[in-house]
Amino acid sequence: MIALRPGRKLSVQSNPVRMLLSAAPWRATGYLASYLLAGPALFAVAALAVALGLVFMQLTVTVTLTVGSAWVIRCLAQVERGRAALVDEPVPYAYQEAAKPGLVGQLKARCGDPVTFRDIACLVLMFPFLLLLDLLALVAWLVPLAGVSLPLWFWAVNYRQDDGGSLNGVWIGGPDDGDPGFRIDSWPVALITAAVCLGLALYACRLVVAAARLHLTVAHTLLRPPPDPLARAKRILTEPGPLALVSTSPPTGLTLSEGHSS
C-alpha cells in the first residue's frame, strides 16, 4: 500500500474541532477546487498536443512542431507541479538534456525522455480519476458547510407553489423531485439541521484533507524525477568508508621514529 504524502500545509489534528478550525481543510479545498478549473484546461491542451505530436512525428518536415508539442507538455506539467505549493512544496523536476545540438537532438531528448511520458500520464490518463476524486471530496465537504450556515439564510429563500403562492424556507428533496422531502422553514428546524451538518463537517474535513493528500501523492509519483537506480552506489562511494575510522597517527607518547623502531 502506498503511503499518502503528508503535505507540509496539511497537518492532521487528533481533535476533530481543532481539525475543523485549522487551515488544513481550507488549503485542501483551494487545492482541489483549483484543479476543477485548471484540470480540464490542462487535459484539453495536453491531449491536443499529444495528438498533434503523434501526427507531426510521421512527417520529417515537421520535426520542429513535434519538439514544440513536447515543450507544451512540459509547460503544462509545470503548472501542475506549481499547484502543489498550495498544500506542500512544489514538485521537483528533472528533464534530460539534449546530447546533440540541433532539432534531431532536441527531438530525441524531449520525445524519448521517460519524464515526458510521466507528464502525459498525469495530465491526460489520470485526469478522469483526479477530477472525480476532487469533485466528490468537495461535495462531501461543502454540502455540510452549507447546512451549518442554514440559520443565516433559510428565511430568505422563497418557493413558488403551483397556485401562485409562495412559501419561505429550503426544501431538502422537495416535491419537484418526486420525493416527499422536508422543508426547513423555522428556526428550530434550521438549528437542528445545522447541528447535524456540523457533526458531519467534523468528519468531512478529514475527508477533504485525505483527498488532497491522495491527489498530491499522484502528482509527486508521476511528476517528480524518477529514482536513480545507482543512487545507493553513488552514496557509498562518496561517503567515508570504515577504514576512515582507523587512525593512521602513531600511538600517543611515541615519536615517529620510536613507532617504527618498535
From TrEMBL:
Pfam family, one: Sensor
Putative sensor domain: residues covered: 31-223
Keyword Magnesium: no
Superkingdom of this protein's organism: Bacteria
Alphabetized UniProt keyword annotations: Membrane, Transmembrane, Transmembrane helix
Residues annotated as transmembrane: 28-49, 55-73, 120-143, 187-209
InterPro entries: Put_sensor_dom
Protein name listed in UniProt: Sensor domain-containing protein
Source organism (scientific name): Streptomyces mauvecolor
Organism taxonomic ancestry: Bacteria, Bacillati, Actinomycetota, Actinomycetes, Kitasatosporales
